[in-house]
């Protein structure tokens, strides 16, 4: 995945050069994974740049910090302003924005709550994460690694340490020649991808795992559910077995980085016709129009910002 290096990184109230964005090697978060973060996308629209569902992402960031006893020194509006400032300063579109709350000072000891909680925000270019950009869909594998039970680590929190599980599942799938992994929950039912929520379609109804499967409550997942309902399709959140997925008419991943990624195959089983299904296409069409400011119905999902001159010139 090609990454555009940012010019500036926001660190505790100021923009610093990329090369100067550093934390200590003995930082508590580095050693114990006690940090929380968000992934947010920004797009070009007819009126300029816009960040997709900024307030919802910031709300989840703050809620994740609460789960991990991390006092946040900034208000929601201050974090939103900092994200906008970082986006504009870097002049990258489309972009992927990464705010992270962490303890960056030296602080060994698992139960150490004394270190300062810092906020940093980075911006990189947003490339295609799953698939090659065509309508072929991706190949996914049922992972041998299970999604942790929420009684072990809270699934509602988007914590850095949780992604060790995603890393193992994703690398296992990659080594076997697949594009992505599908993790099962504690009961052996479908949970989610390594960094995405998952949906399937049967007889025109959209299904997705519910909270009982220890999923992350994805912001894109919520967007998909709302779009599907607005299109007039029944939506069901429930426990989903592997057999239900393998016999589905359609399936797709959703996520901030993945956006809408159709699934054509799961562990050598073809999903439906092996092509992108009509409901997936319909939802994806509305979603991509929405993030680019072309759907007035969902205009409230976008937070506008001025596009840097360099970006505007490049797109002219």
Structural domain tally: 2
The count of helical stretches stands at 8
Per CATH, the class of the largest domain reads Alpha Beta
Helix-and-strand structural type: alpha+beta
Contiguous runs where pLDDT drops below 50 for at least 5 residues: 309-316
Biggest sheet architecture? 9 strands, mixed
CATH architecture classification of the largest domain:
2-Layer Sandwich
- Shape descriptor reads globular
**CATH homologous superfamily classification of the largest domain:** Aminotransferase class 4, branched-chain amino acid transferase, N-terminal domain
Tell me what portion of residues adopts beta-strand conformation: 25-35%
Helix content: 25-40%
Distance between the termini: 26 Å
């Amino acid at each position: 995945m090609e990454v555009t290096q940012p010019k500036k990184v926001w660190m505790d109230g100021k923009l610093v050069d990329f090369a100067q964005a550093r934390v200590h090697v003995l930082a508590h978060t580095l050693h114990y994974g006690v940090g929380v973060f968000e992934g947010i996308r920004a797009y070009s629209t007819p009126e300029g740049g816009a960040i997709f569902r900024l307030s919802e992402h910031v709300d989840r960031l703050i809620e994740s910090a609460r789960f991990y006893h991390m006092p946040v020194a900034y208000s929601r509006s201050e974090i939103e302003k900092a994200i906008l400032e970082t986006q504009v300063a870097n002049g990258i579109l489309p972009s992927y924005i990464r705010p992270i709350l962490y303890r960056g000072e030296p602080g060994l000891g698992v139960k150490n709550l004394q270190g300062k909680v810092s906020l940093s925000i980075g911006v990189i270019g947003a490339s295609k994460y799953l698939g090659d950009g065509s309508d072929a869909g991706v190949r996914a594998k049922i992972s041998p690694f299970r999604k942790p039970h929420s009684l072990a680590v809270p699934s509602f929190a988007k914590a850095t340490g949780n992604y060790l599980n995603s890393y193992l599942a994703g690398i296992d799938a990659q080594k076997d020649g697949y594009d992505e992994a599908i993790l099962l929950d504690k009961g052996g039912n479908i949970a989610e991808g390594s960094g995405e929520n998952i949906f399937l379609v049967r007889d025109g109804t959209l299904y997705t795992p519910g909270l009982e499967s220890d999923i992350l409550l994805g912001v894109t997942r919520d967007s998909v559910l709302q779009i599907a309902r607005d299109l007039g399709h029944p939506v069901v959140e429930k426990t989903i077995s592997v057999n239900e997925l393998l016999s589905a008419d359609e399936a797709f991943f959703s996520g901030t980085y993945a956006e809408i990624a159709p699934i054509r195959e799961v562990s050598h089983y073809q999903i439906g016709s092996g092509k992108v299904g009509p409901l997936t296409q319909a939802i994806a069409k509305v979603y991509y129009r929405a993030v680019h400011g072309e759907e007035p119905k969902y205009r409230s999902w976008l937070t506008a910002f001025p596009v840097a001159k360099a970006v505007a010139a490049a797109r002219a």
